[in-house]
Design goal:
Layout lengths: L11 H14 L8 E2 L9 E2 L5 H14 L4
Antiparallel strand pairs: 1-2
């Protein structure tokens, strides 16, 4: 699991795998997250386009994780 770190100290491939696993655990299906290989030096992770209902479920899971209702 990726822990808190400065934004450019996190490996984008590890972050992608961590995100993919967390989404799977939350039963949230998205297009496969992947590393943005066009700009690897920026360590960007591409989430892809998702349906509105998936965005709402993702936001709900994030709020639950942060203790919000």
């Amino acid at each position: 699991m990726v822990t808190e770190a400065h934004e450019h100290e996190v490996d984008s491939y590890a972050a992608t795998e961590d995100l993919r696993a967390a989404l799977t655990d939350a039963r949230i299906t998205t297009p496969a997250p992947g590393v943005d290989v066009a700009s690897e030096e920026l360590c960007l992770v591409n989430l892809g386009r998702i349906r509105a209902d998936v965005a709402v479920r993702l936001a709900d899971q994030l709020r639950r994780k942060n203790g919000e209702s």
